[in-house]
Amino acid sequence: MQLHEVLAASRDLQEFLEEFTQIMAAHLSSSGVEVWCAVTLLRDGTAGTVASSNARAVVLDEIQYGFDKGPCMSAARQQLLIHAPDFATDDRWGAYTEAAMAQGVHSAVAAPFDLPGPDQAALNVYAGVAHAFDETAIATITQEVAATSTALRLALRLAHYQDTEADLRAAMDSRTAIDVAVGIVMAQHYCTQEEAFALLAAAASTRHTKVREIATQLVETTGGQAPTTHFNTSRASTRTQP
Protein backbone atom coordinates (compact mmCIF):
# COMPACT_ATOMS: atom_id res chain seq x y z
CA MET A 1 0.00 0.00 0.00
CA GLN A 2 1.54 3.33 -1.09
CA LEU A 3 0.14 5.67 1.56
CA HIS A 4 2.00 8.71 0.29
CA GLU A 5 0.24 8.27 -3.07
CA VAL A 6 -3.15 7.98 -1.34
CA LEU A 7 -2.40 11.10 0.71
CA ALA A 8 -1.23 13.05 -2.33
CA ALA A 9 -4.37 12.12 -4.28
CA SER A 10 -6.75 12.99 -1.43
CA ARG A 11 -8.42 16.39 -1.26
CA ASP A 12 -8.46 16.48 2.53
CA LEU A 13 -7.68 14.48 5.64
CA GLN A 14 -11.08 12.81 5.85
CA GLU A 15 -10.90 11.60 2.25
CA PHE A 16 -7.45 10.19 2.95
CA LEU A 17 -8.74 8.25 5.97
CA GLU A 18 -11.76 6.99 4.03
CA GLU A 19 -9.45 5.68 1.32
CA PHE A 20 -7.21 4.15 3.97
CA THR A 21 -10.05 2.23 5.67
CA GLN A 22 -11.39 0.96 2.35
CA ILE A 23 -7.96 -0.21 1.21
CA MET A 24 -7.34 -1.93 4.54
CA ALA A 25 -10.73 -3.67 4.48
CA ALA A 26 -10.16 -4.94 0.94
CA HIS A 27 -6.63 -6.06 1.73
CA LEU A 28 -7.57 -7.94 4.91
CA SER A 29 -10.75 -9.55 3.57
CA SER A 30 -10.40 -13.04 2.16
CA SER A 31 -12.68 -15.54 0.46
CA GLY A 32 -15.67 -16.04 2.72
CA VAL A 33 -14.42 -13.60 5.38
CA GLU A 34 -15.42 -9.95 5.07
CA VAL A 35 -13.61 -7.36 7.15
CA TRP A 36 -14.90 -3.91 8.14
CA CYS A 37 -12.63 -1.03 9.15
CA ALA A 38 -13.15 2.33 10.83
CA VAL A 39 -11.10 5.05 12.49
CA THR A 40 -12.16 6.25 15.93
CA LEU A 41 -11.08 9.64 17.27
CA LEU A 42 -11.17 10.49 20.97
CA ARG A 43 -11.25 14.23 21.61
CA ASP A 44 -12.16 15.98 24.85
CA GLY A 45 -13.58 12.74 26.23
CA THR A 46 -15.89 12.21 23.25
CA ALA A 47 -15.51 9.37 20.75
CA GLY A 48 -16.51 9.57 17.11
CA THR A 49 -15.92 7.74 13.83
CA VAL A 50 -14.06 9.96 11.38
CA ALA A 51 -13.75 7.42 8.54
CA SER A 52 -15.03 3.95 7.69
CA SER A 53 -14.91 1.35 4.95
CA ASN A 54 -18.72 1.13 4.95
CA ALA A 55 -21.82 1.98 7.00
CA ARG A 56 -21.67 -1.25 8.99
CA ALA A 57 -18.30 -0.30 10.46
CA VAL A 58 -19.86 2.91 11.77
CA VAL A 59 -22.66 0.94 13.46
CA LEU A 60 -20.11 -1.37 15.07
CA ASP A 61 -18.17 1.64 16.36
CA GLU A 62 -21.35 3.15 17.79
CA ILE A 63 -21.86 0.02 19.89
CA GLN A 64 -18.50 0.62 21.54
CA TYR A 65 -19.33 4.28 22.15
CA GLY A 66 -22.61 3.27 23.75
CA PHE A 67 -20.82 1.04 26.25
CA ASP A 68 -17.81 3.38 26.44
CA LYS A 69 -15.64 0.29 26.12
CA GLY A 70 -14.39 -2.13 23.51
CA PRO A 71 -11.26 -2.93 21.49
CA CYS A 72 -10.88 0.45 19.80
CA MET A 73 -11.60 2.41 22.98
CA SER A 74 -8.96 0.41 24.83
CA ALA A 75 -6.44 0.75 22.00
CA ALA A 76 -6.86 4.52 21.72
CA ARG A 77 -6.85 5.19 25.46
CA GLN A 78 -4.03 2.82 26.38
CA GLN A 79 -2.07 3.27 23.13
CA LEU A 80 -1.75 -0.49 22.83
CA LEU A 81 -2.52 -3.02 20.11
CA ILE A 82 -5.68 -4.91 21.06
CA HIS A 83 -6.51 -8.33 19.60
CA ALA A 84 -9.77 -10.09 20.39
CA PRO A 85 -9.54 -13.42 18.55
CA ASP A 86 -12.88 -14.79 19.78
CA PHE A 87 -15.53 -12.63 21.42
CA ALA A 88 -17.28 -15.74 22.74
CA THR A 89 -14.40 -16.36 25.16
CA ASP A 90 -13.32 -12.75 25.76
CA ASP A 91 -14.59 -11.10 28.96
CA ARG A 92 -12.55 -7.87 28.88
CA TRP A 93 -15.46 -5.60 27.93
CA GLY A 94 -18.44 -7.16 29.66
CA ALA A 95 -21.80 -6.73 27.93
CA TYR A 96 -20.18 -5.08 24.91
CA THR A 97 -18.99 -8.42 23.53
CA GLU A 98 -22.53 -9.84 23.58
CA ALA A 99 -23.84 -6.75 21.78
CA ALA A 100 -21.07 -7.04 19.18
CA MET A 101 -21.78 -10.72 18.57
CA ALA A 102 -25.46 -9.89 18.16
CA GLN A 103 -24.36 -7.71 15.23
CA GLY A 104 -22.36 -10.57 13.71
CA VAL A 105 -18.90 -9.60 14.96
CA HIS A 106 -16.78 -12.40 16.43
CA SER A 107 -13.22 -11.07 16.32
CA ALA A 108 -11.45 -7.73 16.09
CA VAL A 109 -8.12 -5.96 16.08
CA ALA A 110 -7.61 -2.34 17.13
CA ALA A 111 -4.35 -0.47 16.60
CA PRO A 112 -3.62 3.02 17.98
CA PHE A 113 -2.32 5.88 15.86
CA ASP A 114 0.67 7.77 17.21
CA LEU A 115 -0.59 11.35 17.16
CA PRO A 116 0.73 14.55 18.75
CA GLY A 117 -1.24 16.43 21.36
CA PRO A 118 -4.21 15.29 23.44
CA ASP A 119 -6.18 13.65 20.61
CA GLN A 120 -6.21 9.84 20.50
CA ALA A 121 -7.24 7.60 17.62
CA ALA A 122 -7.29 3.95 16.60
CA LEU A 123 -8.03 1.81 13.57
CA ASN A 124 -10.77 -0.74 14.26
CA VAL A 125 -10.82 -3.93 12.20
CA TYR A 126 -13.85 -6.20 12.63
CA ALA A 127 -14.58 -9.68 11.24
CA GLY A 128 -17.66 -11.88 11.22
CA VAL A 129 -15.78 -15.04 12.21
CA ALA A 130 -13.58 -15.95 15.15
CA HIS A 131 -9.81 -16.14 14.71
CA ALA A 132 -9.97 -14.11 11.51
CA PHE A 133 -6.62 -12.40 12.06
CA ASP A 134 -3.41 -14.39 12.07
CA GLU A 135 0.06 -13.08 12.86
CA THR A 136 0.56 -11.89 9.28
CA ALA A 137 -2.68 -9.89 9.31
CA ILE A 138 -1.88 -8.34 12.69
CA ALA A 139 1.62 -7.42 11.50
CA THR A 140 0.11 -5.77 8.41
CA ILE A 141 -2.34 -3.77 10.51
CA THR A 142 0.43 -2.64 12.86
CA GLN A 143 2.73 -1.68 10.00
CA GLU A 144 0.11 0.25 8.03
CA VAL A 145 -1.18 2.11 11.09
CA ALA A 146 2.37 3.14 11.95
CA ALA A 147 2.90 4.40 8.40
CA THR A 148 -0.45 6.20 8.45
CA SER A 149 0.46 7.83 11.76
CA THR A 150 3.42 9.48 10.04
CA ALA A 151 1.18 10.72 7.21
CA LEU A 152 -1.42 11.91 9.72
CA ARG A 153 1.13 13.88 11.70
CA LEU A 154 2.21 15.61 8.48
CA ALA A 155 -1.41 16.31 7.51
CA LEU A 156 -2.18 17.68 10.98
CA ARG A 157 0.85 19.97 10.84
CA LEU A 158 -0.27 21.26 7.44
CA ALA A 159 -3.81 21.76 8.73
CA HIS A 160 -2.42 23.65 11.73
CA TYR A 161 -0.32 25.82 9.39
CA GLN A 162 -3.37 26.59 7.24
CA ASP A 163 -5.42 27.48 10.32
CA THR A 164 -2.60 29.70 11.58
CA GLU A 165 -2.33 31.41 8.19
CA ALA A 166 -6.08 32.03 8.12
CA ASP A 167 -5.98 33.45 11.65
CA LEU A 168 -3.05 35.70 10.73
CA ARG A 169 -4.81 36.89 7.59
CA ALA A 170 -7.96 37.72 9.57
CA ALA A 171 -5.92 39.53 12.21
CA MET A 172 -4.12 41.61 9.59
CA ASP A 173 -7.38 42.45 7.81
CA SER A 174 -8.86 43.52 11.14
CA ARG A 175 -5.83 45.67 11.92
CA THR A 176 -6.04 47.33 8.49
CA ALA A 177 -9.70 48.27 8.95
CA ILE A 178 -9.07 49.72 12.40
CA ASP A 179 -6.00 51.69 11.29
CA VAL A 180 -7.85 53.24 8.35
CA ALA A 181 -10.88 54.05 10.52
CA VAL A 182 -8.67 55.69 13.14
CA GLY A 183 -7.20 57.90 10.43
CA ILE A 184 -10.68 58.91 9.26
CA VAL A 185 -11.79 59.80 12.80
CA MET A 186 -8.59 61.79 13.39
CA ALA A 187 -9.25 63.82 10.24
CA GLN A 188 -12.92 64.38 11.06
CA HIS A 189 -12.49 65.29 14.73
CA TYR A 190 -8.97 66.78 14.74
CA CYS A 191 -7.96 64.43 17.54
CA THR A 192 -5.04 62.19 18.41
CA GLN A 193 -4.71 58.54 17.44
CA GLU A 194 -5.51 57.42 20.99
CA GLU A 195 -8.60 59.64 21.13
CA ALA A 196 -9.78 58.35 17.74
CA PHE A 197 -9.48 54.74 18.84
CA ALA A 198 -11.31 55.56 22.07
CA LEU A 199 -14.20 56.98 20.03
CA LEU A 200 -14.36 53.79 17.93
CA ALA A 201 -14.27 51.63 21.06
CA ALA A 202 -17.06 53.67 22.65
CA ALA A 203 -19.21 53.33 19.52
CA ALA A 204 -18.61 49.56 19.47
CA SER A 205 -19.57 49.27 23.13
CA THR A 206 -22.76 51.28 22.62
CA ARG A 207 -23.81 49.10 19.67
CA HIS A 208 -22.68 45.87 21.36
CA THR A 209 -20.39 44.94 18.51
CA LYS A 210 -16.67 44.66 17.79
CA VAL A 211 -14.33 47.55 17.08
CA ARG A 212 -13.39 45.91 13.78
CA GLU A 213 -17.02 45.88 12.62
CA ILE A 214 -17.47 49.55 13.51
CA ALA A 215 -14.21 50.35 11.73
CA THR A 216 -15.20 48.42 8.60
CA GLN A 217 -18.60 50.14 8.47
CA LEU A 218 -16.97 53.56 8.80
CA VAL A 219 -14.44 52.84 6.05
CA GLU A 220 -17.12 51.46 3.71
CA THR A 221 -19.34 54.49 4.35
CA THR A 222 -16.49 56.91 3.74
CA GLY A 223 -14.66 55.21 0.90
CA GLY A 224 -17.31 53.01 -0.66
CA GLN A 225 -15.47 49.71 -0.16
CA ALA A 226 -14.00 47.59 2.58
CA PRO A 227 -10.28 47.92 3.30
CA THR A 228 -8.08 45.17 1.93
CA THR A 229 -4.74 43.78 2.99
CA HIS A 230 -2.21 42.40 0.55
CA PHE A 231 -1.01 39.37 2.45
CA ASN A 232 1.30 36.71 1.13
CA THR A 233 2.86 34.06 3.38
CA SER A 234 5.45 33.03 0.80
CA ARG A 235 8.88 34.51 1.25
CA ALA A 236 10.28 36.24 -1.79
CA SER A 237 14.00 35.76 -2.20
CA THR A 238 16.19 38.36 -3.85
CA ARG A 239 19.59 37.91 -5.36
CA THR A 240 22.02 40.62 -6.30
CA GLN A 241 23.24 40.34 -9.84
CA PRO A 242 26.98 40.69 -10.27
UniProtKB/TrEMBL annotation:
Q: Mind telling me which Gene3D superfamilies this protein's record contains?
A: 3.30.450.40, Winged helix-like DNA-binding domain superfamily/Winged helix DNA-binding domain
Q: Name one Pfam family in it.
A: GAF_2
Q: Where is this region: Disordered?
A: 221-242
Question: Which keywords label this protein?
Answer: Plasmid, Transcription, Transcription regulation
- Tell me the first and last residues of the signal peptide: none
User: What GO annotations for molecular function exist for this entry?
Assistant: RNA binding
Name of the molecule in the record:
ANTAR domain-containing protein
Source organism per entry reads Kocuria flava
